[in-house]
């Protein structure tokens, strides 16, 4: 075939595919009826927020070397049980999206400007997908390791001009009465933390919600419970999985992402019309912003444990579509070449704590020797006196804490120091425009194209469940 004929035919094929796509109708933001598509009763939509390919890769490598097995995600690929694609993550305002616009692309089916939740540049609203599913009779909910009011869960649920209006989003959730909402964010519900002094926990209870504020309370959940559930387990984001695993108090009081996933499915599965559940590993993104290798890898593994819970249900249920993806890349981390790369990377297996634990627990009173001891205890390697002094110099003018503000504390510098010990490097401290992993298992997955835009998943979910709105 001549080169120009190939490209002419390819272009024609692409045009035909766009016309006949099961994702979207010519009329716009409405799914087409397609009787050949297998219908899903339930959808579990799983987002490892800010997961660059290197994050998925390093988590799998660590698990292989530590436990001799693949991650749940990569096992689906290895057994050829998932349909796999790449996804374009751009927003309306940038090739590089933020989490609000990214989740809104799935939630509203329209690309919106960064920073907004299902609100277009002209101020018009796009109806969020969980509102559509709820109106159709399904149970709906979100589970996350960051505040439940954060951008990714909110993008499936609400309209808001500013993703930062988490106090307002908490109020919107009350009116929406979704069936399960669990994560962190106590400061947005507690009267002594909110500027308006409203006690949202009391309001939710008065509205008939069952409210959980610790792991033991969540574990009392019965599969016969018909009240909507609000679970808020920590002031802001939940603890990093690595820190939680090595702190008995945190482990006993805060649930893991997998435990929340199991509880949410237990609550939602009894609806004869099915359910739609979003699960977010939100702290993966926070760790990437902070260039925190231990936090990143172990929170990705915590997300993978949640995949295990979702897949266990889907395998038994046979009517559930499981979607595995991320909203965007972040920081583009990776394991890099060197004579000691294997030995260095294996050091992460014995980590007790994250860089976040190290740096947020350090203050102006620390001496270089004390900081060296703290790092050696947490991660098993020694830094130099000069490196300790450089890290401590950042605390001289520090005002306030640095949580989820990695540029305030010396996260970047510590990551640079770590590179020679771990062989893990970073591209930046922010989101990337990478095309990202998208995988599906279950009814409807056979309709997934090899390359999609993020907005296409909105209609895909509606069509796969047979809902046309």
Could you name the key traits of this structure?
alpha/beta; Alkaline Phosphatase, subunit A; ten-stranded mixed beta sheet; two-stranded antiparallel ribbon; 41% helix; Alkaline_phosphatase; phosphoprotein; Alkaline_phosphatase_core_sf; Alkaline phosphatase
Note down, in words, how this protein is organized:
The chain has 469 residues and is an alpha/beta fold. It has 2 domains: 42-333 and 430-464, 3-Layer(aba) Sandwich (Alkaline Phosphatase, subunit A), CATH 3.40.720.10; 348-425, no CATH class. It contains 20 helices and 14 strands. The protein has helices at 3-20, 53-67, 72-78, 99-108, 129-135, 151-155, 166-176, 200-206, 215-218, 241-245, 248-253, 257-268, 282-289, 293-317, 341-346, 355-360, 368-379, 385-393, 411-422, 456-464, and strands at 42-48, 83-88, 139-147, 180-184, 210-212, 229-232, 275-281, 320-325, 329-330, 334-335, 424-425, 431-432, 436-441, 451-453. The strands form 3 sheets. It has a 10-stranded mixed beta sheet, sandwiched between helices. The protein has a two-stranded antiparallel sheet with strand order 9-12. Helix 9 links the parallel strand 5 (210-212) and strand 6 (229-232). The longest helix is centred in the middle third of the chain and has 25 residues, at 293-317. The relative contact order is 0.19. Residues 1-29 have low confidence and may be disordered.
CATH superfamily placement of the largest domain: Alkaline Phosphatase, subunit A
Q: How confident overall, as mean pLDDT?
A: 93
What percentage of residues falls in helices of 4 or more residues? 40-55%
The profile of the biggest β sheet is: 10 strands, mixed
Strand content: 5-15%
Structural class: alpha/beta
CATH class of the largest domain: Alpha Beta
Oligomer: single chain
CATH architecture field of the largest domain:
3-Layer(aba) Sandwich
Poorly predicted ranges? 1-29
* Count of strand segments: 14
Summed up, the helix count is 20
Number of domains: 2
Q: What is the approximate shape?
A: globular
InterPro entries: Alkaline_phosphatase, Alkaline_phosphatase_core_sf
Protein name: Alkaline phosphatase
Pfam family, one: Alk_phosphatase
Family: Belongs to the alkaline phosphatase family.
